[in-house]
Design a protein that fits this description.
Blueprint: E1 2-7, E2 13-19, H1 21-24, H2 30-44, H3 103-119, E3 123-126, H4 136-145, E4 151-154, H5 160-166, E5 172-175, H6 182-187, E6 190-194, H7 195-205
Helix pairs in contact: 4-5
Length: 210
Amino acid sequence: MATVKVYDQNKQECGEIELASDVFEVEVRPEILNLVVRAQMAAKRAGTHMTKTRGLVSGGGAKPWKQKGTGRARAGSNRSPVWRGGAILFGPSPRDYSFKVNSKVRALAMKMALSSRLHNDGILVVRSIELPEAKTKHFAKVAAALELKKALIVTADDDAVLQRCARNLPGLSMTTPGQLSVLEILKHRQLVLLEGAVAPVQARFAKKGA
């Protein structure tokens, strides 16, 4: 079990908490992280790109000119790819870029991402964040006190007030244990866990994966 300090929103030490070793102390294998990150990025791709083939380009119903006697090359349709405004050959077509990754591998990659942040002292456990008003300037003061620059903040539940206050601060993102992803963890140098979110994160990934 790894023991880390718990801080208040002014970064004053106020206790300690133990993190499950089977979630936060897993050997990191880059190839597993790479596979899961590629899968998550591929799933985000819209795949709606498309060019027009001969069957989609307008025109082409009549032969442009007769086959012989004009001195010009033979032409059967103005939809030909060699014509200006004609079809596109071998262009992109709508497709689904996503590919399947085993659920145990995804869970293992999540443990590795969490472990890498703990190993690099990138995890900060905060007891709670309370604001006098739902305003960005108040959250900015808390972020400055906690020395947050490029951080992912994990709250126990959806907190509309904190999300609204944090969304205009560059480099800061918020999520919940159920929405936590490997890609988001690795995109941020700091992982801030509110104390109430630690147990749900551990419960989600404990005894899953290799």
